[in-house]
């Protein structure tokens, strides 16, 4: 419970619900992951009676960060507020001692009226408001009243906050570590002491890490829970025994890594990869057992391989490391493995009790076994040593920090006379050596033909009347290593697959997503329902999927073919050139969204079951006309007119209907057919047929006109002939 001090010095207990609602609502954003509370499980961990408070020795910024991280768990703060206050004050005192602040600072600070300022509560209230920059004088007075400060002293809380807390939180929020600078200062001091004392080798006085409670608890975890799994595997034998032995080896490697965290400094990203290499090798071996030749126990192998990823909790380095906190990470990994573990229980429920015993023991190993261990000893990740060895990414061994450069040898102090004479003799010897040899002894004579102006191999200016030929350097796209894997049981990664026509995801569930990146000339088939599918930067890629819960997305692609065999609520096409989309009857109600997409054709089933698929082109050019105080947008037609936004009429039926309607008009046949040619069409296929129809019409009109002219010409010739005959008869 939070306790507040009033101006009279009395303690006032507040109701827990009131505290959480009034003061902690904005500060504690979420409990998910930290407490292991999940919406998709019936079991909620709201009881904190089994949580223990282990005091932390404040000797580095990393330990300071661990104390500040504890304040992100509200129930933990409510239960252990008083010891956390003490730890928080120790953090502030240690920090100011390290940055060289004077020892005259008072902890906690006091006002002139004798009221102490609880820095712990001040930190919580200011963080709940989003930082001291967001607080005005009224807010400071309000915080002062909550802290039991009456009168006009609330405005003085801001300089107290800045003077005591802001610098520490600056380092914490940006994860800035001063350990390296402190170590450099320490090493320089040790070097000076060595030079004064004649040199000595300091010995490590670190406590025995194997005797720590966390190591003993992990030994108990292996003996109790891993032992149960091994006992059940001995009864089954075969590959189940082999993969269980690999599981035991992985837990032993985890123990060695926990021991090394007590003796090494916190590594960087490359150093962390080297640190986790032994564990990663075991995880890779377990994954390899699930592939290759067919196994009689595929679910045993997959559940073990998926569950071993939980051991990666030791890689947690902070809120920005990209993974859940250790407790949440263990639970998430087991949820992925439980899918296969449940298959083992169902398959052997009435067949073999040894397999059921093995599956139950495997679950107990992680939940509650490993989860409770992490909760008790490493809820915020491993605690690294501030003065341990440094993990080198370039080597496979652990190396201490680079030693200081050796001191220069003591210089002799000769007398001034000898020094002067010695220097003269030395310079005289140098000049004597130079003068003893000809200066140009080692030089070659330069003849006239060797001079630049007389060289005949130089090419003059060459005139070239043609076009300048420039070599185009093709841009080579960066291609990474191909990947086809399931990450943390939730996300399928398919990357850089080139020329693979038989890619397939056979086992998937609606909670998983599929991300396809950088693939070319390949085909991927997804058998089953997934949550979301994304195709990014792929060329000539084919994707066949059954059902998708959320959406199917195509981004930055070219020449993509997608076939939906089931249902897809949303299909998004963005910045794509060339997309052929095949829809099934169940996916005709899908919402298709396009942006910067060209050459998008959609194939849909015909109403006639014996007919082929009907192709519809989605427009990508539009006309925006300002009419009646707003813009009217319509697709652009290639024939020059405006096409309707939505039309599903076939060209032939549309042409027939236009012909029937125009037959009732009083206009001439030529005008009617001309109107048909000007009719708006939605698709390029329709426009081409209209063009052919117009060409045939023009040819028929031309034929008719030619026939009439011939008749008129023949009639005129006959008239002239008869006139000549009549004239000759009359003259005779």
Task: Write down how many β-strands occur, each being a DSSP E stretch of 2 or more residues.
Answer: 16
Percent of residues in helices: 40-55%
Number of separate helices: 19
Which strand-content bin applies to the residues? 15-25%
Task: Give the termini separation.
Answer: 145 Å
Task: Find the structural class using helix and strand composition.
Answer: alpha/beta
Q: Regarding quaternary structure, how should these chains be classified?
A: single chain
Question: If you average the pLDDT, what whole number results?
Answer: 71
Report the sheet with the most strands, covering strand number, pairing sense and barrel closure.
Answer: 10 strands, mixed
Overall morphology: extended
Spans of at least 5 consecutive residues with low confidence: 1-48, 175-186, 192-207, 395-426, 464-476, 639-694
GO cellular component, one term: cytoplasm
Biased composition (Pro residues): 403-412
Family: Belongs to the CAP family.
GO biological process, one term: cAMP-mediated signaling
